[in-house]
TrEMBL record:
Keyword list, A-Z: Phosphoprotein
Span of domain Response regulatory: 23-137
Modified residues (4-aspartylphosphate): 72
Residues of the PAS domain: 156-211
Protein name: EAL domain-containing protein
Species in which this protein is naturally found: Thiobacillus sedimenti
Pfam families to which the protein is assigned, alphabetical: EAL, GGDEF, PAS, Response_reg
InterPro entries listed in its UniProt record: Biofilm_reg_signaling, CheY-like_superfamily, EAL_dom, EAL_sf, GGDEF_dom, Nucleotide_cyclase, PAS, PAS-assoc_C
Lineage of the species this protein comes from: Bacteria, Pseudomonadati, Pseudomonadota, Betaproteobacteria, Nitrosomonadales
């Protein structure tokens, strides 16, 4: 009897092939992700070791063995692909699951070919990650079990049969003429053939027709040892009579084949006689499915299933080459649904998605068989029209599209009416560069929207200029902060009774290196649309806070300073923190800082804004409603916010001679005073306007009558010379 207890107890050998608590190495350079993964895996009784980057991972792998590795790809010190190569060289049997935010097809395929056992995209569902990890560990257990049994093959033929027939891989032998002499039991679950159906049959019976030439070299492999064929991908046909096959495409399986030649061992050293070949086929169907899924997602819109921008560009490139050969024009259309945002905001994104699906289906009905329809993002579609005869073909198709989309769409009980604006450019008349044609069609589409919507607009060269200027402004804006090109000016806010300056409004200006001093009207719309307004707004907060701190250090009178807040700033998740950070860094009294926000901006996300502004008010920071009277003007809603100041829009103040405007301003001031709010009139330019506002008991005024916006230095000098009680001489001092 053997002394080895596992020899008589196969189950015990299986258990010992894997530790009680699998040890995992989690590699990621993001501390929050690393911490979250550690908590998740520890809660499932895994023994978790973490590495904060690729270098730490190599050290950990060098010190101990792991049952699996969860690996991020994009790390600054040593990327995941280099760690993969290290694992392949040192710990080839340790499976690696790549968990990466890089969703490109190249990243996934490179990782899988580099030896990764699986590829999980961030963000992921925890249960899906755990399931993939369990499957990977289960496969590793099987591999360890197989390796353990392989070591015992020399001791027992019984164990040899057990290994071969329970292997997850298809194992076979062929005679020298290519006929099967042995197949293991795996062939039945893999290909649907019983063993006896294949024995004596030529290997070509199970080879996909397109792979027969390549298979001839692999299945007739005569080399042995290190020179034999390894890990060759090939497709095997399934038994056509197999019921409900679990197949990649219903007809075949993709395998990775390793084959080696077999020789008669009883022949002499100089008489080696070839007797056939031995092969192992590993099923990689799931991996190929994953690669195909990644490839599909990289080139298709997941909502509609239509080609995305990348695939549309590929199609356009092919059609341009074909159009040159055939000397026929093609057209690129850019289609954008009119007022789609209103539908999304009022009915919800679920209804919006259903509407996009319906639009995609209707657009397909309007196009020819060879046309390409793509969704580029949001509510923007693109169409490629090859093999045109003339521009009239484009007009005909676009008329059909506009007509079809004008009919109501019924989505979950809602009757929705939509229209579409279309921009078109034709090659070769409008050029033959892929990106230029797409961009020109988009510019033409924007032109169609500006001219009334629900129409077709062909590209014309003159359309490029305003968009080129906008792009230049955006590029300059992104560099302006780094180059310190922004500056704040300060306009006094004056008490109408005492004449004292109660505060200043900080006004942003841009010293453009070529265009000189620009006002917000010249660049704020571009900054809002591009998102650059958020870092600019943070800079304004810091600069205004620094100015308050400078006045305090100079022992000047304490002033209230108002700062305008943009929509993007208020919607930013860290808006409250950025304001509090500016107050704390400069040790300000929160009551000195006042945030100016428009009515319409407050109402965009009522509940969320009420919470944010409530937190700031609790810290003493003041809130002013800017341009009052031009938005909702609803005291019922505004009473829900911690408001301290109402600023009457200058459009009312500058036309106080009209009885209607006079009544409106009088009512605003009366209601503001009734709610114990400070009321400031903007845009005061004449003594007559001041007199009327004093008569209506408006608290404060702001405008060129008192002073134009002052530089920081001029405002500081003014405060030092006059203190807070100088307002009736402000205009003279500013001049």
């Amino acid at each position: 009897m053997s002394d080895d207890p596992t020899e008589s107890d196969p189950q015990r050998s299986t258990v010992s092939a894997f530790p009680v608590r699998p040890r995992l190495l989690v590699v990621d350079d993001e501390p929050l992700i690393l911490e979250g993964l550690e908590r998740l895996l520890t809660s499932r009784d895994y023994d978790v070791v973490t590495a904060n980057g690729g270098c730490d991972a190599l050290i950990a792998i060098g010190k101990q063995q792991f049952d699996a590795i969860l690996l991020d790809l994009g790390m600054p010190d040593l990327n995941g692909n280099e760690v993969l190569r290290f694992v392949a060289d040192r710990s080839a049997d340790t499976p690696v699951i790549v968990v990466s935010g890089d969703s490109t097809i190249d990243a996934a395929i490179r990782a899988l070919r580099g030896g990764a056992a699986d590829f999980v995209r961030k963000p992921y569902e925890p249960e899906e990650l755990l399931r993939r990890l369990d499957n990977t560990l289960a496969r590793r257990r099987l591999e360890k079990e197989n390796n353990h049994i392989l070591q015992r093959l020399q001791q027992s033929e019984k164990w040899h049969r057990f290994l071969v027939n329970s292997s997850p891989d298809f194992i076979y032998t062929l005679d020298c003429e290519g006929r099967f002499t042995f197949v293991n039991d795996r062939v039945e679950s893999l290909l649907g053939y019983r063993r006896e159906e294949l024995l004596g049959q030529h290997y070509s019976l199970v080879i996909h027709e397109d792979d027969l030439v390549r298979a001839e070299h692999i299945f007739n492999e005569r080399r042995a040892g290190d020179r034999n064929a390894r890990n060759i991908e090939i497709r095997l046909k399934c038994n056509p009579g197999m019921r409900r096959p679990r197949l990649m495409n219903g007809r075949c399986k993709c395998v990775e084949l390793t084959a080696t030649g077999m020789y008669d061992e009883e022949a002499g050293p100089f008489e080696r006689r070839f007797i056939g070949s031995y092969g192992v086929a590993k099923d990689i169907t799931e991996r190929k499915q994953a690669e195909e899924t990644v490839h599909y997602q990289a080139y298709h819109d997941l909502l509609t299933g239509l080609p995305n921008r990348a695939l549309f560009r590929d199609h356009l490139g092919l059609m341009l080459a074909q159009a040159k050969r055939n000397q026929k024009p093609l057209a690129v259309l850019s289609l954008d649904l009119d007022h789609f945002k209103v539908i999304n905001d009022s009915l919800g994104h679920t209804i919006g998605d259903e509407l996009l699906l319906a639009v995609g289906a209707r657009l397909r009905q309007c196009l020819r068989e060879g046309d390409t329809l793509a969704r580029l993002g949001g509510d923007e579609f693109a169409v490629l029209l090859p093999t045109l005869v003339s521009r009239s073909d484009v007009e005909h198709i676009c008329r059909k599209v506009i007509q079809v989309l004008s009919k109501p769409v019924y989505v979950k009980g809602h009757e929705i009416y939509i229209s579409v604006s279309i921009g078109a450019c034709v090659s070769p008349d409008d050029g033959d560069m892929i990106d230029s044609l797409i961009r020109q069609a988009e510019i033409a589409m924007y032109q169609a929207k500006s001219h009334g919507r629900s129409r077709l607009q062909f590209w014309e060269p003159g359309m490029q200029a305003p968009y080129s200027e906008r792009m230049q402004i955006e590029a300059d804006l992104r560099r302006a902060l780094a180059r310190n090109e922004f500056v704040l000016f300060y306009q006094p806010q004056v008490d109408t009774v005492s004449g004292e300056v109660r505060g200043f409004e900080a006004l942003l200006r841009w010293w453009h290196p070529q265009r000189g001093l620009l006002t917000p009207a010249d660049f704020i719309p571009v900054a809002e649309e591009s998102g650059v307004i958020v870092p600019i707004g943070d800079w304004v907060l810091r600069e205004a806070s620094a100015q308050l701190a400078e006045w305090r250090k100079a022992d000047l009178p304490a002033m209230r300073l108002s700062v305008n807040i943009s929509a993007r700033q208020l919607e930013s998740p860290d808006f409250v923190d950025s304001v509090m950070r500016a107050v704390q860094v400069y040790a300000l009294d929160g009551r000195q800082l006042e945030l100016e926000i428009t009515e319409s901006l407050l109402m965009r996300d009522f509940e969320a804004n009420a919470i944010k502004l409530g937190r700031l008010s609790a810290a003493g920071i003041r809130l002013a409603i800017d341009d009052f009277g031009t938005g909702y003007s609803s005291f019922k809603y505004l009473s829900r916010f911690p408001i301290h100041t109402l600023k009457i829009d200058q459009s009312f103040v500058q036309d106080l001679d009209r009885e209607e405007n006079l009544s409106i301003v009088n009512a605003m001031i009366a209601m503001g005073r009734g709610m114990n709010l400070t009321v400031i009139a903007e845009g005061v330019e004449t003594e007559s306007q001041l007199a009327r506002l004093q008569q209506m008991q408006c608290h404060e005024i702001q405008g060129h009558y008192c002073s134009p916006p002052l530089s920081g230095h001029a405002a500081t000098v003014m405060l030092g010379q006059h203190g807070p009680g100088f307002a009736h001489g402000v205009q003279r001092a500013a001049s």
